[in-house]
Amino acid sequence: MGRGVRAANLVGGLVLAVLVAGCGGGPQEVDLETLDAATIYQMGERELETSRRSQDAVRYFAEVERLYPYSEWAKRALIMQAYAHHKNREYEEARAAAQRFIDTYPADEDAAYAKYLLALSYYDQIDEVGRDQGLTFQALQALRAVIEEYPDSDYARSAILKFDLAFDHLAAKEMEIGRYYLKRKHYTAAINRFRVVVENFQTTTQVPEALHRLVEAYLALGLTDEAQTAAAILGHNFRASEWYQDSYALLTGQGLKPEAKGDSWLARIYRQTIRGEWL
C-alpha cells in the first residue's frame, strides 16, 4: 500500500471520527448526502457501539437505504435497522424491518437471521404470565419457522430452546387460570384447564402440578377413581416430585392409594402412555 493511500485512509478515518463525535444531536446535523454509503453505514455501527439507545443508528441505516437503494450497503443497513430497533426494545419496528428484509431478500444468507430477529421480537415481549397470549402464539409460530427452514443453523438451536420456554409459558397461563378456579371451588372449570395442560402440554414443566391439582379437584367432587388415576400417572412419571408426595398424602388421608381405575380420560392416558395400549 502506497504512502498516499495510507494517508488518504487516515484522513478518511479522522473525518468519520469527527463527524460521529460531533453529531450528538443526530444525523440531521451532518449533510449525509455528501457522504458515501460505507461512511454512513459505519456511522450507524459506531452509534450502536457507543450509545445506550439506538435511534440515531436506525436513522443512519435508514439514510443508507434512502440514498443508496438496492445497493449492497442498503441491504446490510436494512438488517441492521431490525437489529437496532430490537436492541432498543422497539419490537414492532424490529418486526417490520425484519419482515421487509425477508420480503426483499428472501434468498439472502442473512434471511435466517432476519427470521430469527422477527421471532425474537415476539419472544422478548413474553415477560410475564399475565400478558396477552397472542404474542406467545406468534412467537411460537415464528420460532417454528426458523427451526424448520434453517434446521442446521445456530439460530435454529437457539430457537428450539426459546420455543420450549414459550410453550411452557402457555401451559403456565392455563395453570394460573386453573388455580384461580380451584381456589374459588369452581372445580369443573379448574379441571378443564388442568386437563388442557396434561393433554396438550405434556413436555412442559407444568404437568406434575397439573396432575396434582386434578387430584385435589376430583377429590373435592368425590370422584375418587379419577383422583387415584391422576395420582397414578403422577407417581409413574414424577415420583420424586413434591407434587406426588402431596397427592399421595391427600389420597392416603382418605384411605385411598394411587392406582388407575375406571374409564375416564385419565384412565385412557394411563393405558396409552404407561401400558402402551393405544387401541
TrEMBL record:
Designated name of the protein: Outer membrane protein assembly factor BamD
Keywords: Cell outer membrane, Lipoprotein, Membrane, Palmitate, Signal
Signal sequence residues: none
Keyword Signal applies: yes
Domain of life: Bacteria
HAMAP family in the cross-refs: OM_assembly_BamD
Subunit structure: Part of the Bam complex.
GO cellular component assignments: Bam protein complex
Domain Outer membrane lipoprotein BamD-like: from-to ranges: 36-231
Family indicated by similarity: Belongs to the BamD family.
Topology versus the membrane: Lipid-anchor
Functional description taken from the UniProt entry: Part of the outer membrane protein assembly complex, which is involved in assembly and insertion of beta-barrel proteins into the outer membrane.
GO biological process per UniProt: Gram-negative-bacterium-type cell outer membrane assembly; protein insertion into membrane
Subcellular localization: Cell outer membrane
Lipid metabolism listed as a keyword: no
Species of the source: Albidovulum inexpectatum
